[in-house]
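Summary: Need help interpreting a holo structure output

Steps to reproduce:
1. Submit the protein chain below together with the SMILES for zinc ion.
2. Request a joint structure prediction with the ligand placed.
3. Inspect the structure token block that comes back.

Expected: a single structure record containing both the chain and the bound molecule.
Actual: see attached output.

Input attached:
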Amino acid sequence: MSVLVKTSHIWGKEVTDNSIIVENGKIKRIGFYGDLSKDFMGEIHDYEKGMVIPGFCDAHLHMTWLGQTLTLCDLRECKSSAEFLDKIRAYAKKLAPGEFLRGFGWDDRAWSDNEKPTRWLIDDATCGHKCSLTKVDGHSFLINSEFMMECGVTGETTDTPGGRIGKNQDGEPDGMFYDSAFDEYARKKIPSPTTDQLESFLLKAAEHLLSYGITSCRTFGTLDDFVTLAHMDRKGILKIRTCACIPENALAWAVDLSAKTGTGSEMFWTGQLKLFADGSLGSKTALVSEPYSDGTKGIEVTTIREMKEKITMAHQIGLGVAIHAIGDEAVKNVLNVFGESSDQDTIEHFQCAKPQSIALAAKLGIPVVVNPSHMPLDAEAIKVEWPKLAQNSYPLASLIKAGAIVGFGSDAPVVDPNPLTALACATTRGRTVYDQINPQEAISFSRAIRIATKESSAIIGGPERGLIEEGQAADFAVLLDDIRGKDPWDVEKVPFVATYVAGERVWKK
Ligand SMILES: [Zn+2]
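--- attached output ---
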């Protein structure tokens, strides 16, 4: 079946080009509506003032975790303990009997009253469901009495190295768990999602991504996520092109099955093996050459030797490796480890890099996937923790000048995956002049779009797409308005109205 999509303009095309004909999943013709509609027999989708833009590719995100976040009890906006309890109660009432209640994002500092988060506060509102609620910082957790009983925690239970159990004046545990105490006593007791739940998380995430004009993505998750996505593809219910990576703990499985990068279908294919060279800036575990405010220099999560061994194993079966590297030392190590032997490999985040590393990444041709939309999130920490490395942070212009292969990823759900936010950050380097990071590393808007569409797509593989050209896969989105000449932060507010993958309208406002 062929479809004619009519708008007011197509990004990057001649002024008079306002329409596209798609057929058999590909772009067949581009031109002026008056010409294209002559003798056209198929369906017409008219978006009036809308604008066609190539489908975005998010080259680094966590689909299951995103879908789960969209499903959990969201406590981020609560301004009082009463509001917090209302949200929990309303959510609990919708759960099936015996279902575990999970929530996230609460912040008692934002409450207008002086109520303390304790299990006694939430017990009634949880309506008999076992419950665990993650604080906004992701480092502390509130659980209810029923779940605490199951975890076997009492006044006698001791703290863990690097963790603490909250207690009241009488020494009674109050339901609060900090850092490793939660991992030790509670996390393992939370039921892991069933296959049906995983599928519903993935469907929810796909829907959310499509609503932002994202037509392909590369996801990092568990082996269960990978297998569930493969099943969904076979059932024909996966509506976004998905490249799924393999976690480090599944390397043996990948070797047994000869899981090769790029194999699969047009909608689902195998990505890389994921390794971690270091931690993150927020927790001061990213490996850096200049010490943090507390004198430390981060953590080598995987040793160079271990990385080498795993890369060799992966490369033997044709599986590429994607390595998380945030600090400049981690980036340097990873480039040295890959050396000339790189093959379908990528470096993830590449948040801080010295000029030598940028030159080497370009020379070796190893794609780097950066997260421009994290700039507003990290601006403060960079000022405090990386004063001497600030000029090496998010080196977009330098990477492009050096000729490196660059892609964009949101790392959702770390931030909302709206690709228009990444475009604005890449071009302005901050929401205001006060939180700008390294403004000399800004790139042009049209280059940012090219990276977020064509170039990211090429990095993750799959069918030829990312340009509005005849013969390319018909993967594109329609924005409500023409975005030419607008301020990037105004563009961020322009809503998407429809998204097409392989010529099919898979999402509509
Ligand atoms: Zn990530």
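--- end attachment ---

Reviewer comment: The domain at 195-501 is CATH 3.20.20.140 (TIM Barrel). Residues 99 and 241 are 32 Å apart (CA to CA).
Status: needs-info
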